[in-house]
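This section describes the prediction task in plain terms. A model, or a person checking by hand, is given the sequence of a single protein chain and must write out its three-dimensional structure as a string of tokens. No templates, partner chains or ligands are provided. The sample shown here is typical of the held-out split.
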Amino acid sequence: METYLPDEVAVESGLLYRLILDGRIKGRILIHSSIIRRLERKALNGDFRGLEELENARRSAENLGLKLEILNGDPDLDPKEALRELAFKNNSIIVTSDYVSAAIAKALGIKVLYEKAKVERCLDAFFEDGVMSVHLKEGLPPRVKRGK
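The expected answer:
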């Protein structure tokens, strides 16, 4: 059975979740604790996207009978470096949508499941009928002005 190690980008972007649903991941999934710490830090600053995607991935893995486990590691190591080291030692597959991370892993002889990130234009969601303008200010949620 294959072992998969998703990086932070794969979790946060929903790639891990999509690959599980599509049946492209059929083995054990290990999430490095450094990724959990980074997602937690982002959530504390109001960005819950990564934690939500992790929960989606966990639920779908459970529904399909796959194991998703948290792996404790050296907190001082960079998450990308920690994943490469772990994948190299255990002959695991790194899951990523980060081209540079995929290229480095391949250069080191590590198996990679790479899929280019799907870019969605989130601003389009604000421009519905009757919307005159959208105001963006750092640190505040977007504000929509509607008119006739």
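For orientation: The first helix runs from residue 8 to 12.
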